[in-house]
Fold this sequence. Notes:
4 helices; mainly alpha
Amino acid sequence: xxxxxxxxxxxxxxxxxxxxxxxxxxxxxxxxxxxxxxxxxxxxxxxxxxxxxxxxxxxxxxxxxxxxxxxxxxxxxxxxxxxxxxxxx
Length: 89
């Protein structure tokens, strides 16, 4: 039986690579009996979804920034510089 440490590593790795059949089976069996690892697996899933949502939002912001005129970008840049000078640190 895989340990909780093994399971947490495999759950994390499953985002980057496909687990082998035996790894997947071991994770599933362990999650059936271990509430803490189930919770960890669920938290990782929520975190991945949030990061994907964040990436989508960042792409939208970049698209919006690309649509701005040079003059608008300059005004925003100047406003940010003034704000930094007013509120250092």
